[in-house]
Amino acid sequence: MVTQIYAILAFLIIGYTVGSVKIINQGNEALVERLGRFNRKLGPGMNFVVPFLDTIVLQDTVREQLLDVDPQSAITKDNVSLEVDAVVYWKIFDLEKTYYAIEDIESAIKELVLTTLRSEMGKLEFEKTFSSRDELNKALLEQLDDATAPWGVKVMRVEVQDIKPPQAVIESMQLQQAAEIKRRAAISEAQGEKQAAITRAEGTVTSMELLSEALHDPKSRQQIFQFLLAQQYVEANQRLGESNNSKVVFMDPKFLTEGLVELINEPGGPGEVSDSSNSKA
Prior knowledge:
281 residues, alpha+beta, Tetrahydropterin Synthase, Chain A, 4 domains, 9 helices, 57% helix, disordered C terminus
């Protein structure tokens, strides 16, 4: 009889000991209530509770968590409807507040993200929604962090993943972009032609200055006229040869240059005038 009593007591002690030991994994915390009231918070490792009096009402992670918000409709400041989604990185820093201050923390954060995201998108014009994504993330982070602080939660980062405008708006953007590229190409081509014309004009002016200086020398004047005439003759033949509908007639440039020389040396010609001028000088 005594042996049975000892066995029962030993069984109760072992059961009590096993029931009072609670193992909390690393990265988690647990809340303990005693007789329906919050008693204490359990950290990672071995913890002891009073069986039948203490109850673990919640065990949750305090590591950083990810909340992916599905694409939702939003309207910009200039009344463009689009779809936008975001991801939120958050963590629990006070498990007691998270459990007793809000019913469902993830649903609460998700609804808060949607409301804040729509509000911030309504402040932006459509064309600025893509370029202002960093500013949008910062604004969302500040508002969400302030709103979730009473819940024992800290929002670490907010990232707007994708912004999808309607197909009609996308096609309009593509047409606008194509027109802008065409306009830039036309401007570049016009600037190139302008620069080429300036370069040709500068070359012509330089050539005329050099030619004017050379014509002051009577000895080289005849050779200059012969060279210019031969150059024009060759270029004319080349242009005629490039045309499919042209008939090319080749002439010996000797006859042309000799005619030009006679024209230069004839009385009253350029050579005669220069020589007279030199003799008077």
